[in-house]
Design goal:
about 50% helix, two-stranded antiparallel ribbon
């Protein structure tokens, strides 16, 4: 056991503190936080561009957790029609977010949109 304030020796000389080598898993990476803020902003903009019915169906489905059948009953639509509206809303959201700087990360990896 060693103190986190103790220094790691390199070639007989004091180096970095042990504490600097321990990663805080709960800490938020500033770049990830910024990306999340940007994504939320873009998503709010994209949702704002949806037609009222598309926005309502998407809200019921994703935020309220309702099934297509429950949404259909609430809006007096068939389950199939609700599915069409939801698909159209998702297509519009994907199109709006396509080409976003958040679509691919800095090392070319895939993000949520792909």
């Amino acid at each position: 056991m060693a103190s986190l304030e103790a220094r790691l020796e390199v070639d007989g000389k004091p180096g970095i503190e042990y504490g600097a080598l321990v990663e805080d898993a709960a800490a938020v990476d500033p770049q990830s936080h910024t990306n999340l803020v940007d994504l939320r902003s873009q998503l709010v903009d994209a949702v704002g561009r949806l037609e009222d019915r598309e926005r309502l169906v998407a809200t019921f489905y994703f935020y309220e957790g309702l099934t297509l059948k429950e949404i259909g009953k609430a809006l007096e639509l068939t389950e199939g029609r609700v599915s069409q509206i939801l698909r159209r809303a998702l297509t519009k959201l994907c199109e709006h977010l396509k080409g976003s700087p958040l679509e691919q990360d800095e090392v070319g990896g895939w993000s949520t949109f792909n």
